[in-house]
Amino acid sequence: MGKVHVMDHPLIQHKVGILRTEDTGSKEFRELVSELAMLMCYEATRNLKLEDVEVQTPICKTTVKKMSGKTLGIVPILRAGLGMVDGMLNLVPTAKVGHVGLYRDPESLNPVEYYCKLPVDAAERELFVLDPMLATGGSASAAIQFIKDKGCHKIHFMCLIAAPEGVKRVQKEHPDVDIYIAALDEKLNDHGYIVPGLGDAGDRLFGTK
Fold it and tell me: Which uninterrupted H or E stretch holds 34?
């Protein structure tokens, strides 16, 4: 079973508090989302594999550590996941970036893929699927499945705010995927919004509401 990691670092919790605040404008909101993604990336990559390499320092030769194999793949779910990409790339600039786009069918209410573009070597990479909000879990689960259908299996999911219902669904449908969360909230309301949440992350990122 994939593990659920709720980040308790003081800087993460402090920035989440500002992010939630209604008066936080789009510019500051975007900056905070990027900063949070960077801080979470630092914690979430703790178990990446390393290998020994020999280098020449100004003094002598020595053995140092470097990441083993391919570096990360980052896959934001469009559109709100885009806000987390730069923060991840600040720490891992050699990471490759893919994208997954979904829309909800108005009749069945099921997520439908309209775009999925992954790095050509995605199956060889540790992939982090990004979306600021994990509400019902429908979009996250669908995006993960689309990526698995492309032959990828080393997948993690990272979000800023999650509802228990969404966590439960992703765990049920993808028990092999670790979930990284900045804050685990109370519940979903009758309209599918996370409570207390922060509203619509996409609208707040891009100033569309």
Answer: helix 26-44
